[in-house]
Every structure is written in C-alpha cells, then in structure tokens.
Amino acid sequence: MTVHFPEDAASDPGAAEDAATWRPLAEAARELVDLCVMSDVDAEEVRAAQADIEAAVARLRKVRRAQTMGMEYLAAGRRRPWGNPVIGLRNPIAPPLVVHSDPSGRVESDFHCGAAYEGPPGLVHGGMVALILDQILGHAVGAAGRPGMTGTLTLVYRRGTPLGDLRAEAWVDREDGVKTWAKARMIGPQGVTCEAEGVFILPRAVRERLGLPDGN
Amino acid sequence: MTVHFPEDAASDPGAAEDAATWRPLAEAARELVDLCVMSDVDAEEVRAAQADIEAAVARLRKVRRAQTMGMEYLAAGRRRPWGNPVIGLRNPIAPPLVVHSDPSGRVESDFHCGAAYEGPPGLVHGGMVALILDQILGHAVGAAGRPGMTGTLTLVYRRGTPLGDLRAEAWVDREDGVKTWAKARMIGPQGVTCEAEGVFILPRAVRERLGLPDGN
Lengths: 216, 216
Fold this sequence. Notes:
The structure is a homodimer of 216-residue chains. Chain A is built from six helices and six strands, in the order H-H-H-H-E-E-H-E-E-E-E-H. In chain A, strand 4 and strand 5 form a beta hairpin. The two termini of chain A are 31 Å apart. Chain A has a six-stranded antiparallel β-sheet, with helices on one face. The longest helix of chain A has 24 residues, at 15-38. With 216 residues, chain A is α+β, with helices and mostly antiparallel strands. Chain A has helices spanning 7-10, 15-38, 43-60, 69-75, 126-143, 204-210; strands at 100-101, 107-113, 149-157, 164-176, 179-188, 191-201. Chain A has two domains: 1-96, no CATH class; 97-210, Hotdog Thioesterase (Thiol Ester Dehydrase, Chain A), CATH 3.10.129.10. At the A-B interface, helix 2, helix 3, helix 4, helix 5 and strand 3 of A face helix 2, helix 3, helix 4, helix 5 and strand 3 of B. Strand 3 of chain A pairs antiparallel with strand 3 of chain B, so a sheet runs across the interface.
C-alpha cells in the first residue's frame, strides 16, 4: 500500500484481482530467496529445486512485458508501484514494507528483514538500511504533497541493525522553494540504529502546479 | 569474488565445489525475481508457476541452517560472503557484483541492474544506488587494509541512473586514526549519476593490530 498515492486504487479497477494473482507468486519467491541463503540440503536436492525453479521460469517467460512496470503504468497515466524493490507486492527483493501515514505527513512501517538482507554477521547490510530509509523518506515528502526525486541522502549509523523485526519512521523537517528536507530513522529492539536526512527536489510538473519558479 | 579477502579461498577447501552447486540455483532464482515483475502471463499460468516454486521451497527447507551464513562462517573463522545482497553468489537479491581491485586500493565493478531494481520509471531506485555504493566503499577500505563498518554515508544524486549496464568505482580518499574516508561513484551511459562518500570506523581487532588507540 502506498498511502501517498491514495487516488490510484479508485482509478485502477483491476488492481485487486491482479494483486490476488501476483502477490502469492512473489510471496513464494521470497521464501525461495531466503532459502537460497539459508538452506543446507545436499547437492542432489539443490539440483532438483533448481529444475523446479527453471520450470516456473519457463512458464513466466512465455509472455514478457515490453516495458518495465514503472514505464508501462506511467504511460497509462496511473501508478502501480508493484515492482518497487522496497514496497512492491510483486517484487521478491522487497521485504515488502507496508507504509502508513498520518495526516501530518509522518510515515511509519513495521517490517521484517531476514537472512537475505545480511551484511555484517547477524546485521542488516548498511546499504539495505539506506535503501529502506530512502524509500520511506520519499513517502514522507509525498504524504506532505511535495513529492520528488532524492537530491542528497545522508545516513549516520549509530549501531548495527540486527536482522529481524524492525521499524522505520520518516517525517518532513522543512521546505524551501523547490527543496524539501525529510528525516528518517531505523529502529531495532535496542533503539535507533541509523538516522537519515534526504533533500528532495520537486519535479517540474509539481512546481508549476504550486506556482513555484524553476531552478534550485 | 571479494578481492579484499584474498586469503579466504586458500583456507576454504570445498568452496569451489559448493559454489558449483549453489550458484546455478541462485542464477535460476534471479531469473525468477526478474519475471515476477516482468512477466505478463495469465492467472492460470501464474498459479502453475507458483506451484513449481513451492515445490522448490519444500525441497530446500528440508534442512535449514541454524544460523545465517554470516554468523556461521564467522564462527568457523573463515568468511564466505555468499549471502551478501550485493555480491553474494547465493543471494538472488544480488545482481551480483564482481568487484575488482588494483594494488593502490582502487576498486571497480561492471554489472547489470534489471527491472527488479527499478524505482522511478526506467531508473534504478536511488536507495539501490546507495546499497551498491555502500558495498564497494567497503571493498575500497578493505583493499587498503582499513576494513570497517560504515559510520556515515553521504550520497549526492546528479541525475537518474538508468536501468541496464552500469559501473561503480571506489577509492580511499584519506585516513586519520581509526577513521577512513572513501569515495565512490555510479556511472551510467551518460556519465556519473551519483557520488558517495563514506566514513568507516576500524574495528577494535584491527586497531589493536595497527597499534592505534581506542575511541574516535
């Protein structure tokens, strides 16, 4: 669910049916991704599993999109962020995060990072922390009506982020012309593990709607 | 290949055989991840593919590691970064990057990011750019004999990073006591898309070996 685009569900009538088809596929693939790093079966079993995956691949590649999901849905004038590597219900790379926002523009998400997200032993990869915080910073500026692409992203790592259940929070800190500053943090069982700040630049279409001048 | 730990291959007999077993599994799973976002087959075919994946999952979960790969190999006194989400040969989340270093400590990698890494339409997710640059910054400080955990990471996005063939480069900029500053950049067909700087803190064991005092 991307709560900063609430208008999409209404304008996308087949979405619920499509989600019911593709979500369980991605969920099975997420289990597979986890087992690729966590399984300890013998070589014969690995080869048999590989053959099963190749059968699935042969089925799915019978019809391939001409464009990525992002390009295709953008062209159709609507947006299904189902391919997104953090929140995408169709993307097995995504944990996926379900992001909630409140009317003030604060966003939050509780999620789980398993073994496939490991960097240092037992800890979430620092770059994965960056990926997740970048995503929810984007939700915060979107929720505040100031969507944009990341211009600058700064992360301060306070301690390792343990694998397991985690929480991410973000909010808009301030805005000035076409720039919006948002802050985020990752929270583990022992408290805040990483603090982030992002500077987002309003895209031209939004600048024009808000009557803001061009430039930085 | 993690060239900043060249001693591992020699001390890890069986690695080549294990890699020959698990690498093709992960490669098949990477194709599957891509198709989860790029396939456009009908619902019946999706359900059949899901059943194939569930068969693979049932095989692989027959024996599950008690610990993550990072924890297990750390305990065994050797390191196989095969679970790493950027370079891990067993991790379907990883493109994976193959990172090369030269004797001066410069590191570089040419790799491919497909549809599963998409953020804005047609572009690599900015957080994915951060994940990849964080990883190769770590290789740079490791290659220079100053390994460490990321303390601070700053990314400046110059333009969107198009999906497709990309290059990442990193090098050590300077060092002072327990801190090492490294820089990295992402390069697409039109040039540099993102510049990064990371500050890495030497772990205690390395400080003691180098005779450096504690603290920052």
